[in-house]
Amino acid sequence: MKSIHAIAKVTLLAIVCSTLVALSAPAVSAQGGKVIEVILSVSPQAYDGPCPATINFIGKITTDGPATVQYTFARNDSASAPTSTLVFDSAGTKEVSTTWTLGGGALPSYHGWQLINTLAPNKLVSNKAYFKLLCKARQGGSPLTNAQPAANLPNLVTKFSGLPGAASAGDHLGDALKVQATNIGGGVAGGTLGSGGDANGYMIDLVLSRKPVTSTAFAIYSPNYSDGVLLQGGRISRTGDLGATAYREYTDELGGSVVIPADTPSGNYYFCAVIDPGNRVRESNETDNISCQRIKIKGRPAGKGEAPPE
Predict the structure, then answer these.
(1) Residue 101: is it exposed, middle or buried by C-beta count within 10 angstroms (0-12/13-18/19+)?
(2) Of 104, 135, 166, which closes a domain?
(3) Higher pLDDT, 42 or 308
């Protein structure tokens, strides 16, 4: 009988000790969750102002349970970003963010995007958060005053030659294309390589449009066609000073690199040269900075919802 009582006591003591050990042991949460959603937003989507500018990106990562999430940001210029870690104790959503500062000087406009890649516990890719940047024009020289009459200001005009009458979507416009900048005013027009510098020197944009271009704002580049798109290779950004009545021809700067977007629908268009986009140079006449010529493009048929060729 005593031996039965002794066994019972030992068994009870073992149960109590096991319970105490279990209660004192730290809780361990199993991480079986996975990433189920990744979204990214950008602010501002369209920026127009002084540069450089900072574009803000805010993302949200959601899991369906406890998880340690590794992620990284990726962007259209292929710049590398570090891998970051988020710890989820349970299912839920956490916010992440990054910034991109750019613009100014030789980059007066830009069209780009960022996205989020999750690397662990599973791979998932967010939407691309697109943005457009257009640096606000900075006027070169001092303000127009009675001591600085219009006759002493430059007046920039442009023309081009060697443009074919017809081309196909995706074509390079060739080495024959020449663009000329002329100052028909009485003062010096500063170039980016001269007295104007990167911030105030004149440039020349080459754009494609359904109708003659009327805006002297910086055009925005895209590999895809849109009305008034800046063509690939179509920004002459390395320019020299032009004295009164002087002119300069830009051929080597183009190097046959001007390209019609490959998705341009068939139709009649205008190829336009815009000198001093952004109105960086103060001129006696700001209304004669654009030169256009018709060009017929052979491309894919107009899709549903597209405007028919004019």
Answers:
(1) exposed
(2) 135
(3) 42
